[in-house]
Amino acid sequence: MPIAADFVKSVTGETFAALVLASSEPVAVEFMSYGCEHCRLLEPVLQEVAETLGAREAVFRVNIAVDQELADRYEIEGTPTLVMYSGGIEVGRAVGPNPSVKVLWNAVTRPFEEIAS
To answer: Residue limits of the Thioredoxin domain (predicted)?
Structure first.
């Protein structure tokens, strides 16, 4: 059975600043945990959104079970939490399980559309 492409890349405390905060492109970060049922339900939808966005925006994930310091620094109180960044600054946040492509698409792209206008 072929392995599906992973369009959502993992970042850690060591790579977060370079890949997220220093990015010249808009970035969405899912703070998640592999033990979180809602995160597992969200994964295929987030993969679809990330694949559709392609190179326009980057979509990353942070496993808060491994990188608790990042979760604390960005005040993540529950999973899944999507945080959108532009120019290293948080420009949007969506918390909780909303596993539909439309909801995620809006959560990920709306903050960047508002900045552009």
So the answer is: 1-117
Cα torsion 95, 83, 68, 9 to 10°: value is 110
Note the pTM of the prediction, 2 decimals. Answer: 0.82
Non-local (6+) Cβ contacts of 113 within 8 A are none
Domains in the chain, CATH or no CATH each: 9-116 (3.40.30.10)
Tokens linked to 77: 């109180």
User: At 77, is the secondary structure helix, strand, or coil?
Assistant: coil
81, 30 contact by CB (below 8 A): yes
At 15-47, the pLDDT tens digits run 999 999 999 888 899 999 989 998 988 888 888
Residue 40 DSSP label: H
What is the CA angle 35-41-44, rounded to 5? Answer: 115
- Non-local (6+) Cβ contacts of 19 within 8 A are 9, 11, 27, 58, 60
